[in-house]
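Record 1 of the preview.
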Amino acid sequence: MSEDKLARTVVAVLSHYLIRKSAEGPGAYNGPLEDLLSRVQARLSEPFLAEVFERFVERPSGTVESETLQLHVREVVTRDADFARELTSALAGRKVSRLRSPRRRTRLILAGVAVILLLVGTFVVGRVTTSRPAQVTAAPTTINVVPPTSLSSAVSTTAPPTSTTKSSTGSAVPAVPGDGASAPKGSPVFLLDLPRPDDEWNFSRGDHDVQLTPYPNSLWNTLATCNSSSYSREQQFRLKNFTRLEVKAVGTDSTSSPELGVKFEVFVNDDAVNAIQTVLVNPGEAKPLSAELPAGVFAVKLRTSFTTAPGKPCRSGNAVWGSPYVVASGS
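->
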């Protein structure tokens, strides 16, 4: 089971269980699920994560609370393979703890899998969902993004022309990762395809929305007003022979607290003080971002930080770089 699927399953099962406990009282008590709940609580014991967990327990049906907990569980199991195995075993133990005969074992395992899939499906249906973006196609190409019918997109979603080789996920990948001289001049390369120092990810990545409008190959991180280590985050990429950075939209996603304002900054090389581009995004906004890259650039650093005052009650949200890419200088 992938880290993302494991996190979704754990949060969906616990959400269903806590809702049932709230409705039925002590009669809904389930030992294996209480064990699963205590394992997650014990692992998320750091002050900010503990508050995220407590908010989820208090409101297990809340979209923001479930989404936030899922994000942090996924980050933990990605870093800690032992904890991932522990959660997988806890889920498996819940499904097979009372098996007796081989035939009944098979039936109950299948039933348990079906129940978990049903719970996950119910959880997903209850969420605020967004349309999935179309993959980037051959050059010139347009990402046909269809936002919810009740809202109109505030930011253009037209992708730049490209004739580079595409990966299986639709990302434009140069022949030499991080070297724009090995790609045709003017072609885009998503930041997801660039190398990173020590191959380390500080941001999350993949398809994501900015104020309900979806963007492929995005980057994002969770900020929180009540934790100094989560008040600002950054991610660096290694590159050379690129002329410009383009981001289709920056802002918070649809699950974030609506009061959050975020500053998006771009730095180059080892300078962490003088940003070459800064965009301030007020609550509920989405803006494009563009920055010319100076000659001799060998690294780009993205930084997000709050313009909202720190403190409690804790307000958290995902600061998203929607479809960021750099433009190759060519050979």
